[in-house]
Amino acid sequence: MKIGINNLLKFFLVMLLPLMVVNGGAVLAADEYPAQPIQAKQRCPVCGMYTAQFPEWATQVVFKDRSMVAPESPAELFRFLGNVGKFDTRHTASDVAKIYVTDYTSRTWIDAKQAYYVRGSKQKGPMSADFPAFATQSHAENFAKEHGGKVMTFDALSSSEINDHSGHGGHTHGDNRK
Fold it and tell me: Which phi and psi angles does 114 have, rounded to 5°?
């Protein structure tokens, strides 16, 4: 089969162009803001703990300028997102390009907005009660069956629920983790 220039152009316009994002006149790849390595000395912008000490709980917010902050857990991530300016004077909520959490099962980075979280489980995070994150709903449900809690989406974890969450009260810095 002979492929002509017209067929290649049609393929690009129909198949490839929709996979790209136009931003300020520049064409950017969809993965323009990848997860970044957490450095050993990197501190949580909310509480000051060393994020790398708790890799199964680590999260990160990548900004449009490609800088990154790493809240040490999903609970701290939601506190950060609820008041970006309080915890990072260089950025605002509109500067956020991508948000990542660690999948509790595989220990890999996943899109925080696509993750499933377990609220109210017996499993403790770095500072006490937390929200383990999972790439799949079935993994989150299995975790909830074993450890208790309710499976929730990113959008369901509203700021009022975060504020009601026990968070820092009686924090343990991981002493009660499995």
Answer: -100, -5
Domain, as residue range, for 9: 1-32
Cα R_g (the chain), whole angstroms: 19
Rounded to whole angstroms, how far apart are CA atoms 66 and 52?
A: 19
Return the closest-CA partner of residue 44 out of 16, 90, 79, 14.
79
Q: What is the pTM of this model?
A: 0.75
Beta bridge partners of 110: 101
77 and 154 both lie in a single domain:
yes
Please indicate, yes or no, if residue 176 is contained in any of the structural domains: no
* pLDDT per position as a tens digit, 22-70: 444 444 455 789 999 999 999 999 999 999 999 999 999 999 999 999 9
Domain co-membership, 24 together with 98: no
